[in-house]
Amino acid sequence: MNIRTQNLNSNINNLQILKNINASFNNEGINVLIGPNGAGKTSLLRQVTLLDRPTSGEIFYEDRPVSRMSSDEKTLFRRKIGFVFQTPLMLSGTVFDNITYGLKIRGIVINKNKVEETLLKIGLSDKSYHNAKELSGGEKQRLSIARVLIIEPEVFIFDEPTVNLDPLSVKTIEDIISGLAGLRKTIILSTHNLRQAIKYGSKISFMKDGEILQEGDFKEIFNRPAMLDVAEYLYSKNIIYGNILKEDGQTYLIRDDLKIVVVAGNISGEVAGILSPEDIFVSKTRLDSSARNCFRGTIKNIEWLGSVYILTVCVNKVCFETVITKQSLISMNLKIGDEIFITFKATSVHILKSPLYP
């Protein structure tokens, strides 16, 4: 089912929560919303599921404006949508009672085999008759997803479904979301987890202060942020503020005594250079490479991030974050305080005009 908003606004107590949101969600992959706390992601999700009413603007289901629907029509469309909230709400009774509740209120005959299959899929097949309110946090979230799966909606909405959960629950939920995408269901996923956004997002929408600031696939969002608000959210370390200098046929980003070769087009003056951690190569010796930027720096920090390590490398006063595998860390025998080389291409530095200069 296609869902679209047009100039959607929402005000609460004279505070504008959503500002002229024009968004569309379809079944061609997973639609991902990212952005800081208070960006308006949950408010937008509540609007498109008709849990809240907009102050102005319109919502369309299959190009039909909601404002012109009867109450019965709205109920019919709402029942085609399954919403998994960030904080799961358990109903009184057993796990079985919870998973079958949606079927009962829709007048759907309960198929026990289907219930058992769904419980098996979410890893709760052995807890069918346990008190739902006594489950762990991860189990409750998995059960809330099962309540949605069992009704087979056309639209699945996940609002931060894996936040603060155990690794098993995270993996189970991610596998379910990935599987749904293969069924051409309309899926909207709100997340703070950038790994999830990159892995699952066919279309990513970045929100801040109630607005959608940029939309695109992960390459567009992560490699070419349209503005500093997006870049600052994605690259906490690799934003280099400085000035553009054109000299001897080259264009440089100058920060303190560091000269970084960049491609800046017609941009001049004060700028911000955005550099993805994955675009920085680390070596013990200077690389024989066509990349125009190669600097000797000192490792200031090494942070384990699951399957990879984050290295903070400082070149004089300018620090960079880069990513390496565990195998590379061990083979190069890297440790804090070591001097290493970082190398990156001029085209890897995305230049944005910036009046800010910290």
Protein architecture, described:
The protein is an alpha+beta fold and 358 residues long. It contains 10 helices and 21 strands. It has helices spanning 41-48, 71-78, 95-105, 112-121, 137-149, 167-181, 194-200, 218-223, 228-234, 326-331; strands at residues 3-12, 15-21, 24-25, 30-34, 56-61, 64-65, 81-84, 155-159, 186-190, 201-208, 211-216, 239-247, 250-255, 258-261, 270-275, 281-283, 293-305, 308-315, 318-325, 339-344, 349-353. The strands form 4 sheets. It has a 6-stranded mixed beta sheet, with helices on both faces. Strands 1, 2, 3, 5 and 6 form a 5-stranded antiparallel beta sheet that branches. A 5-stranded antiparallel beta sheet has the order 14-13-12-15-21. The radius of gyration is 24 Å and the shape is globular.
